[in-house]
Specification:
Blueprint: H1 2-19, H2 31-36, H3 47-50, H4 54-57, E1 64-69, E2 72-81, E3 85-89, E4 98-100, E5 106-115, E6 120-125, E7 146-149, E8 158-168, E9 174-175, E10 178-183, E11 186-192, H5 197-201, E12 208-212, E13 215-216, H6 220-228, E14 235-242, E15 245-252, E16 254-255, H7 262-269, E17 284-288, E18 300-302, E19 308-317, E20 320-325, H8 326-337
Antiparallel strand pairs: 1-2, 1-4, 2-3, 3-6, 4-5, 5-6, 7-8, 7-18, 8-17, 9-16, 10-11, 12-13, 12-14, 14-15, 17-20, 18-19, 19-20
Length: 357
């Protein structure tokens, strides 16, 4: 009954919104400028629509937290244990984070675990006797199923539908964007691709790459293998030698499939709003069309019956968001709480930015 009532109400309101559009409005030659001036919120996520889905998030809102830094929300989080354990999106977290519970309390947090493959961070918050999320069966979701993103209030953050059921993602190939040659016992740059990670980092032809993330480089093949073991969007620390001087340069790895007109690709993908810093490299994802902001990731994603079927992990493109399905993350949560995924001494490899940079 809830499923039918919610669907009918949502469709009715969508029709009302659509009927308010003018069919005679003249087209603008500067259509791109007009699009970029539109409100950031998608009309489907207007309160008149999301209010129809309040029942779906009623039991899960208490399991949702809001994470803040310098007075602004940076992500949502999901309570997985009553003693104060919360998971969220790792790459969105700065060093100092406070947690706001659904009852309005502000509590401190401590980072206690990181799972780099899934971009998950485990936080210990200064609170107990919390409501932990109860996971549903994400394997039952089909393309076209309604999904609701929770918030810490009775109002859902956004709604969407399943685009593709849970599936593995192929590992993307990271690229630095240089050509290399052997120069004595070290690799030397003989080409820098325009718009690549190397170009943005300031590498020049003739530079010697001495180390990557503290690992000594002795051949071009060593550089390629090291970069290939990482993910697009990861930050690497390069030590180069240039005209007798040693320089330390940070570089943001690119995606090998996106080499080309990167500015145009980024523009088209971001028309629906800002994209997540890390949005590739997850082993398993549930794809849906909910219009999220990066700061809306990390919290529970529920079906119309209120079952938590995953957590949102990335805004990927203009028409796509990724969630980690419950079936994929449930097995690793106990391992994270048991300390099997500790926080590295240096979080450098987990700091990410847009893969187009």
């Amino acid at each position: 009954m809830l499923r039918r009532r919610t669907s009918l109400y949502a469709v009715a309101v969508c029709c009302l919104l659509t009927s308010g559009l003018s069919a005679t409005e003249p087209a603008s030659s500067n259509w791109l400028a007009r699009i970029r001036l539109l409100p950031g919120e998608n009309e489907r996520s207007h309160r008149t629509i999301t209010s129809a889905f309040r029942d779906a998030v009623n039991n899960v809102k208490a399991c949702t937290v809001s994470l803040h830094a310098e007075g602004s929300q940076i992500a949502l989080g999901t309570i997985i244990d009553a003693d104060g354990y919360v998971i969220t999106k790792a790459s969105e977290l700065p060093e100092k984070v406070t947690c706001q519970l659904s009852d309005g309390r502000q509590v401190s947090t401590k980072l206690v675990g990181l799972h780099p493959d899934y971009d998950l961070a485990l936080l210990k918050v200064d609170a107990t006797q919390l409501r932990a999320v109860q996971w549903g069966d994400s394997s039952k979701l089909n393309a076209g199923s309604w999904l609701v993103t929770t918030s810490t209030t009775e109002e859902p953050t956004a709604i969407g539908i399943v685009s593709s059921p849970a599936r593995p993602l192929p590992k993307p190939q990271a690229i630095l964007g240089v050509g290399l040659e052997q120069f004595g016992d070290l690799p030397r740059v003989n080409r820098v691709i325009d718009g690549s990670a190397a170009a943005n980092a300031g590498l020049q032809i003739g530079d010697i790459i001495a180390s990557v993330n503290g690992r000594a480089m002795d051949r071009p093949q060593t550089v390629s293998a090291t970069i290939g073991s990482l993910l697009p969007g990861e930050r690497v620390s390069l030590v180069i030698k240039r005209r007798g001087q040693s320089l330390s340069l940070p570089a943001i790895l690119g995606d090998a499939t996106r080499i080309g007109n990167l500015e145009q690709v980024e523009l088209m993908e971001s028309l629906g709003g800002p994209l997540s810093q890390r949005r590739t490299g997850f082993p398993y994802v549930l794809e849906h069309d909910t219009v999220l902001r990066p700061k809306d990731c990390g919290g529970p994603l529920v079906d119309l019956d209120g079952n938590a079927v995953g957590i949102n992990i990335a805004r990927v493109s203009r028409v796509s968001s990724y969630a980690l399905p419950a079936s994929a993350i449930k097995p690793i949560l106990a391992d994270m709480m048991a300390g099997k995924f500790p926080v590295p001494t240096s979080r450098l490899a987990l700091e990410t930015v847009s893969t187009s940079e």
